[in-house]
């Protein structure tokens, strides 16, 4: 079977997270989105563990269920050098053991969702490995709290301790991460890191697993590529839309080339804010290969449907007006991924003509993408010619999309997906 899983989110016990991040809300919104599996996130927090146990049924040691949505036990920890790691636990008892192990090194493990732990990456990985917990770097390339802001290689960070996957983060995709040879044997995870259950957050990145059942054990095998289990598709935000894609000022968001930033000593000459190195530029610094591993699953670049709708009708992404149209599409076609990828233009047009045109433009690589950077998400714009054209005129329309500094080679989703699994 194939199942879509988003394994990294945060609960209402983490800082800056929506109060709506509850287990029942997660289950309900996961169903809307078309996800079958959600990582609990924050499971090291005892209150979140309690909430999970109250609202779900146990399937097996490492798998819980509510209304047909499976939950796996996951968490994120911050190490002594402010690097984040994702953990996936085989059971509640290993969650509790890990909590006990980390307690002496953490002030906030009982109160925070994402605890700060005064141990190195290698020490945390050693404990995880001893307990049979899967571990890998979270959003590996982002400039504040990730592995590559601190180290130049996995080896330097983990000192040879085993890691089982690498999380790409919103500002990178598989093609970018594969520029580093040491990643080629690792499985990539594409997770949302959602702080709210809203449709443009939860499941904005997910992994499509080929497994026998939606359980921890099957997921573990897939991550380790054993017995035919595997990830067949990573789907995620177009990396240009990520908050840290290009190098930019973290206060006024003005973009800089890495050379300019260096000249300005990483201080914005316009406002005095700190310039943060973009994931795109960080990867180019580290890149040591042009080759791709043969078993790398395809990466599908997405823009959240709610954001496409918001762009078309000119309303905020969290407004009622956007939600109403979003729900109409979901009711008609069952899941967001089908709307974005599979349903033909004419079908979409029956629900909302203007949105249909924008989805078509995205599939064809004809939306204008203004890349994100410095902590500000990228933006999408619909070219005027497309806005004015009728559905019938679209296919023959000549559209000039402005050139940008970085454009992915694969732009047409439809062309791309012909080779992808259903
Ligand atoms: Zn993080
Ligand atoms: Zn600035």
From TrEMBL:
Entries under SUPFAM superfamilies matching the protein: PHP domain-like
Keyword terms: Metal-binding, Transferase
GO MF entries: metal ion binding; transferase activity
UniProt superkingdom: Archaea
PANTHER family per the UniProt record, alphabetical: PHOSPHOHYDROLASE, PHP FAMILY, PHOSPHOTRANSFERASE
The protein's name in its UniProt record: Phosphotransferase
Species whose genome carries this gene: Thermococcus celericrescens
